[in-house]
Amino acid sequence: MEKIIVRGGRQLSGTVRIEGAKNAVLPVIAASILASKGKSKIYDVPALADVYTINEVLRNLNIDVNYENGAIDVDATKALKTEAPFEYVRKMRASFLVMGPLLARVGHARIALPGGCAIGSRPIDQHLKGFEAMGAKVEIGNGFIEAKVEDKLVGNKIYLDFPSVGATENIMMAASMAEGTTIIENAAEEPEIVCLATYLNSMGAKVRGAGTGTIRIEGVKELTGAEHTIIPDRIEAGTFMVAAAISKGNVLLENVEPEHLRPLISKLNEMGVIIIEESDGIRVIGPEKLKSVDLKTMPHPGFPTDMQAQMMALLLRAEGTSVITETVFENRFMHVEEFRRMNGNIKIEGRAAIVSGPNELQGAEVSATDLRAGAALVVAGLVADGYTRVTELKHIDRGYVDFAGKLKALGADVERIYEAQENELENLEAPAPLKMDPNFA
Ligand SMILES: CC(=O)N[C@H]1[C@@H](OP(=O)(O)OP(=O)(O)OC[C@H]2O[C@@H](n3ccc(=O)[nH]c3=O)[C@H](O)[C@@H]2O)O[C@H](CO)[C@@H](O)[C@@H]1O
Ligand SMILES: C=C(OP(=O)(O)O)C(=O)O
Question: In angstroms, what is the span from residue 351 Cα to ligand 2's centroid?
């Protein structure tokens, strides 16, 4: 078993380059299924476990995918298979994003039913409501969801009960090749939706209004492979901003889009963190004392749920009481129990976590209960007394490229090790980066 071991007390300084966004690249790779002509080339692809998983899903559909030097070539021009087994959907829910493109291109998809996970039950009813409104027949049985279209999907007006990111993306992809026009109302407005729409449009689709609550898609007969660059990862960026702030550090983040970070920047400013937009990135300077704030997670442009755990780490160090309300996922406080092991004073009342600070955090053995929780525990370890040992790194590897290595390069006292090496802690070598063959999950 691997662990990240961090010893608190170092201020972070230097420069970190932010990767392409996980949550943008996954739907873009899924959308490349739509190209019956030409190849796609996708740039700034992060070397994440989730990327290997979606690549493998596509290969199983008889699509050629080659990942080299941070770019992916996709050739989806051969006859497609239409089944995504549980093995992939279990690893990553975003595998379900292949349903929209498959329905549009070949009128059939059979995808294992995504299960619940550590952050909530995560139903897919809004995706299915969209496909059914466009004429698909959906059946659920034996752990699979099977959808079929008799002839072609037909455009329709679809009102989402909640601005679901995944449902907006899946419906947008399906509608790109449907007959007639589809209008998605109460659509998600996240920057990753805009990234997907830009790619679809460069393939020949007609998507308008992405980034607003109403998206209008005029279906076209055929889409062609295209080149596309993935937007910077606002959540990886946010995690390093919090790491800089908590350690009273001074860190420059390169390859960031400040507009995508507004909700986070404004909260960090309220807490007393200094953030300077420079020509080559964003500089974050942590103050001597952090102020408490309240925050509520919301769909974009509200405060992102994917930054909630990291902000909890930071608020543990702030003076006074902060209330964090989680409105997006019903069970995204699993990290609270882990923070308590580190001496964090947090109470849960329904959907709110009440954080009383400042806390003198103590190193402890903790478990990454999900991807952002894992990153947040490592970040808390940066200022804890003694050693914090974080296990269940498979979650962190889904969304962060060499997280420990990047923190170490900024001056953190951190190692990624195999359990057997733990006794040699004093003489540790640099942690090996994620060991994976980029072309196999
Ligand atoms: C790969 C990816 O992009 N993942 C992100 C995406 O997940 P994902 O696309 O799964 O998140 P959604 O926006 O769909 O989910 C938000 C809420 O809507 C509910 N819901 C969703 C779909 C549905 O059909 N029915 C339903 O009830 C979910 O249970 C959840 O409570 O957006 C989330 C919210 O910003 C982020 O935390 C994830 O990091
Ligand atoms: C919840 C997340 O991702 P996913 O939707 O892929 O589980 C996340 O990125 O924090």
Answer: 19
Q: Which residues line ligand 2 (CB under 6 A)?
A: 23, 93-94, 119, 306, 371-372, 399
- Of residues 203, 135, 204, the one with CA closest to residue 171: 135
Residues annotated in a binding site for phosphoenolpyruvate = 22-23
CA distance 92 to 398: 9
Counting ligands in written order, which one lies closest to the CA of residue 122? 1
CA of 406 to the centre of ligand 2 (A): 21
Annotated binding site: 22-23, 93, 122-126, 306, 328
The span from the CA of 228 to the CA of 74, in Å, is: 12
Are 299 and 163 in contact by the 8 Å Cβ rule? The answer is yes
The question of whether 195 is a catalytic residue gets the answer no
Sign of CA dihedral 411, 15, 242, 167: negative
- What is the pTM (predicted TM-score) of this model? 0.95
Structure tokens given for 127: 């995706």
ipTM > 0.95 for the complex: yes
pLDDT in tens, the chain (441 residues): 899 999 999 999 999 999 999 999 999 999 999 999 999 999 999 999 999 999 999 999 999 999 999 999 999 999 999 999 888 888 899 999 999 999 999 999 999 988 667 888 889 999 999 999 999 999 999 999 999 999 999 999 999 999 999 999 999 999 999 999 999 999 999 999 999 999 999 999 999 999 999 999 999 999 999 999 999 999 999 999 999 999 999 999 999 999 999 999 999 999 999 999 999 999 999 999 999 999 999 999 999 999 999 999 999 999 999 999 999 999 899 999 999 999 999 999 999 999 999 999 999 999 999 999 999 999 999 999 999 999 999 999 999 999 999 999 999 999 999 887 776 665 544 444 444 444 543
Q: Which ligand is nearest to the CA of 118?
A: 2
- Asked whether 431 lines ligand 1 (CB < 6 A), one says no
Between strands 206-208 and 2-7, the pairing is: unpaired
Q: Pinpoint the alpha helices (H) of 138-278.
A: 165-176, 191-202, 234-246, 262-270
Q: Are 272 and 287 in contact (CB under 8 A)?
A: yes
94 lines ligand 1 (CB under 6 A): yes
Instruction: Calculate the CA dihedral of residues 268, 370, 128, 302 and round it to 10 degrees.
Output: -10
Domains of the chain, start order: 2-19+232-418 (3.65.10.10), 22-229 (3.65.10.10)
